[in-house]
Amino acid sequence: MTLKEIVEKRANLLKQFKEYVHGDEWDKATADKIYEDIEKLDEQKRAIEQADELFVQKEELKQEAKETGFYETLDGFIRKGIIGGAESREKIQEIELRANQFYRGTANKGGSLVPALLGDYIEVAKAFVGGMVTPGLVDWRTTGTGNEQTFATVDDTATEAAVIAEKTDAASGTDVTYGTSALTFYKITTKFVKVSAELIQDSVYDVVDHVLELLSMRMQRGLNNYFTLGTGSSQPYGVHHTSTKGEDGPKRSITRTDLSNLIYSVDRAYRANGTFMFNDNTMKAIRALDIGSADARPVWSESMQKGEPPLLEGYPVIVNPKCDDLEAYNFPVFFGDFKNYKVREALPMKLQRADELYIETDEIGFNLIGRWAGNLISAGAPIKHIRCAST
């Protein structure tokens, strides 16, 4: 089915759904079936759009890299283990310098030798992983080094100005208490991807794209895991361990009241930029909820605009496969301003090639390795969660 056919079919189903909701005869099962069909079309539409966007971006990157000669450099490294035909360290340093200059000087583009070009391919892959590595969700920046970064924090929200009478002696002051939060960098590796010598030697496939895609997806899955579930002990702090409880929910179910209470447990200052986060299983349970009070319309609403996320109670939704299920003691739903979660990426990342490690099976190993930091930096409580009951 083409994208045009999907859009037309979805529009017809949506019209049918609205007419059915506002009609005299209402049957929730029938409405749910129509809505499921709409959801399937949305998934097909998103898949086509993402594939088209990814293809265009990759072609643009490859074309620009080819024009500068950087793509051939990376291709030579992956296929033959050499860098531009030169074996001297001086030539390697020259190419690395050019790549980094190109990367820093061109927004949203990449150079060739490992850090720059790989960085942009990873950015493209983020959309397919979702969760904490969803583009634009958290405060994600790159640094030139991996030194620990310390942030000062202060919570003075409980202190108010007060009236004093005329000629009153100076009142005792209220001190401001400052704290600190740190971003510590950790080295993260994709582990080696093994590629057969036949695939590298034969030109049937685009080996460069093949290797980059495998490494990119591995890195993004790993980063999402740490930024979601990381304990802070020899790894980044994840939102699971740094958010605070906003609502006690049932053991294996969820109600609209739970969602409402969670929303209003977050201060309005953070709520204005609020976003929901949960996994597919929780999303399925939430999509079965309706407005209530004899109004059977769903609380969930799909976005009608390309590229925009669906809405829940008026707030965008991010699906994260690493979030908990609806089970005892779990944290299945998060809500708040995720911009307070800070991610720092220390450039450059490295693409490693191992010619001897898998020599017995005649394979070449490739590994992407870099340094990352993640933590929720805030003096307040910008992100809160629902905690499931024990029984």
Topology:
Elements: H1 3-21, H2 28-68, H3 70-80, H4 89-105, H5 115-129, E1 139-143, E2 149-154, E3 178-183, E4 186-189, E5 193-196, H6 197-201, H7 207-229, H8 239-242, E6 244-249, H9 256-265, H10 268-271, E7 275-278, H11 280-287, E8 290-292, E9 295-298, E10 300-301, E11 311-312, E12 315-319, E13 333-336, E14 341-354, E15 363-376, E16 383-388
Parallel strand pairs: 1-14, 6-16, 7-12
Antiparallel strand pairs: 2-3, 4-15, 5-15, 7-13, 8-9, 10-11, 11-12, 13-16, 14-15
Walkthrough of the structure:
It is a single chain. With 391 residues, the protein is an alpha+beta fold. The protein has a domain at 132-154 and 178-391: Major capsid protein gp5 fold. The protein is built from eleven helices and 16 strands. The strands form four sheets. The chain has a seven-stranded mixed β-sheet with strand order 6-16-13-7-12-11-10. Strands 1, 4, 5, 14 and 15 form a five-stranded mixed β-sheet that branches. The longest helix has 41 residues, at 28-68. Mean pLDDT is 78; it is low at 85-128.
Could you give the distance between the termini?
Answer: 46 Å
Q: Unreliable segments (pLDDT under 50, ≥5 consecutive)?
A: 85-128
Percent of residues in helices:
40-55%
Shape descriptor = globular
- SS elements, strand count: 16
The main sheet comes to: 7 strands, mixed
CATH topology descriptor of the domain at 132-154 and 178-391? Major capsid protein gp5 fold
> Using only CA atoms, what is the Rg?
25 Å
Residue-averaged pLDDT: 78
Architecture (CATH level 2) name of the domain at 132-154 and 178-391: 2-Layer Sandwich
* Strand residue content: 15-25%
Helical run tally: 11
- Main structural class: alpha+beta
Strand order of the largest sheet: 6-16-13-7-12-11-10
User: Looking at this structure, what is the CATH superfamily of the domain at 132-154 and 178-391?
Assistant: Major capsid protein gp5
